[in-house]
Fold these 2 entries.
Entry 1:
Amino acid sequence: MKHRDARAGLKTAALYVVATPLGNLGDMSARALEVLRGVDAIACEDTRHTRRLLDHFDVRVETFSLHEHNEAAATARLLRLLREGRTLALVSDAGTPAVSDPGARAVATVRVAGFEVIPVPGPNAAIAALSASGLTDPHFLFYGFLPAKEAARRKAIAALKGLPSALVFYEAPHRIEETVVDLVAGLEPQRTLVIARELTKLFESIVSLPLAEAPAWLAADENRRRGEFVLVVSAPPPAEGIDAEAMRVLDALLAELPLKQAVKLAAEISGASKNVLYDLALARKGKE
Ligand code: SAM
């Protein structure tokens, strides 16, 4: 490996975590390219996949693999190179490494060892989907992939039901239908589902529909089940008679007081029904 001098202002003995395009190569940032050109080596989820990207941009830097099944050994290699003062990059097949992708454990180990880890932000499917979803909920929870097995998936969905946030999932084409059916069964069917498919690619589509209608919509055309998916579900509808302000008061009091006392005070302050607040408080506490 050729030891590169501090090129393009890159730090030595540091790991750059570099986001790469989801599909459209035009999304490769100038800084990502500068970093990939300047490092001594690039750790890749799949070296052959990344080589095609690097060839496209004429980046001639050594690569080695760092994926789910060799993360410990590959991380040891990262540490060895960092101790020699090398500058390294970490990339995944698409999007941001360590987000539903390999790299999180490597980054943790590198940080604990005292080396600098520098993010080079860029494409991420969840954020791209959210940004174009049209949902206005102020909070979201990024879940990533739900469990593949039905029982575990349903349990995971049930645990998310009471959260006052939009929910963001990743899903593969062969499981999209069953996952959407389970979302309908486990969440309020009047919530909105945004199905973001093939983002930044030729067949990109972003469709927004009532959750209850989604299974039939997917079943109607096999093209709707092809490609890569982000699912965004809007936050739950406010409970009847409870507005956002009453929820805010309840949450603030629940953080400080025992449940019964919090409910009593929240009812007095907001004028909302004590019984409804009590049920909501139980649901909130159940999630902790
Ligand atoms: N690290 C990536 C990121 O930053 O988004 C995610 C990697 S994860 C292994 C792959 C999943 O991300 C896919 O199954 C799909 O759910 C989602 N995804 C990736 N690219 C996508 C795209 N172009 N359109 C829609 N979803 C995509």
Entry 2:
Amino acid sequence: MAHTLPQPRTVRAAAALRGTIAVPGDKSISHRSLMLSALAVGESRVEGLLEGEDVLATAAAMRAMGADIVRQDDGVWVIHGVGVGGPLQPETALDMGNSGTSTRLLMGLVASHPITATFIGDASLSKRPMGRVIEPLSQMGAEFQDTPGGRLPLMVRGISPAVPIRYTLPVASAQVKSAILLAGLNTPGETTVIEPIATRDHSERMLAGFGAELTVTPSPEGKVITIRGQAELKPQNIVVPGDPSSAAFWLVAGSIVPGADVTITNVGMNPTRTGIIEALKMMGADITELDARTVGGEPVADLRVRHAPLSAIEVPPELTPSMIDEYPVLFVAAAFATGTTIARGAEELRVKESDRITAMADALGACGVRCEEFEDGMAVTGTGGEPIPGGATIATLLDHRIAMSMTIAALNARDPITLDDAAPVATSYPIFFDTLEKLGAMA
Ligand code: S3P
């Protein structure tokens, strides 16, 4: 899954961006739909699955553990699951590529089964911290042999029966929460995760949809999420909504390119994911929500965005978890606003596919934008809507969101911006550049 040759790409300013586009399926929901279908008994069908490299890594891993997963010619994925308790010993190491979500959630799944699995990944994933899942999963009885610093490659020796735990998340992370809930699926009794700061709730929604006994109760310490283990999951037909994190690139592009008018259809509007829309609206973005509806248990809408002058904001810290993946592109929006935008309380950005604070400060800085890095965020001073200077070559650092964010920045730059490697885009948004072309911008 590693990319052998870098794919440099130069992006020029766009004359105008106009049209109606759809974004690919939600990455978080796609991973979970494959994992839970693979743990159900019988045939599940998934429509709108994101066919990006990260999700394909999850599919390969679930196949390696015995699930039958087939993509039909009509694009529907059909999965015959092995049942909770049924995953088989994988014969070779599980290659997670660039995907932290695949790694952390599958570490949880393996932890409570009597199998041993080795996880490997690319250079970016191999730098990311896994201690945050090793800690609670060790309390449940799983054993780990990790690379120093709690990193990949690592081996998980699962245990059955595992020990149910009650665990308060020390870091706001849907991946850690989901790893524990997945481990809890094959653990006798009740496994509880307490979440002081709410994060994306796709695991809870989908586990309940598959028939798991799961309760979510508010409490003074936060959301108390309890799963009763060793239940049977019933197969489902799932329709995956469009990914709001992918839509975010077009929301910013539409806001910063003069004359832009873009409609994005079928965007997931789960409130644990829509922080970027709130932040952009606070900045003055012209975003309208059309035809709000529910698809497969998730709220969905079409979004229309038109060019508008943006003003700097202080990003409200309470929005952080619901826009954690959107900071790189928010920094791009800030580069075109009037005034200095300040984001704080986002230290998690340092342990994503790259250190996204330094990566974006360096990238925007090289393009002539004034940025000040903080340990937990950044200040970006905007041009007031004028083009940024541009003209730099950007290190994308195996990080899809750095590559896409800087592509958007290039759409209103005086001189073209070159990505040293555009290949990482394929992890979450393989048709990103096709869509850019469809909107009238030639990359
Ligand atoms: C994800 C959770 C987030 C997010 C990632 C996907 C998920 O990570 O950044 O892209 O699907 O659970 P953390 O849980 O580490 O914040």
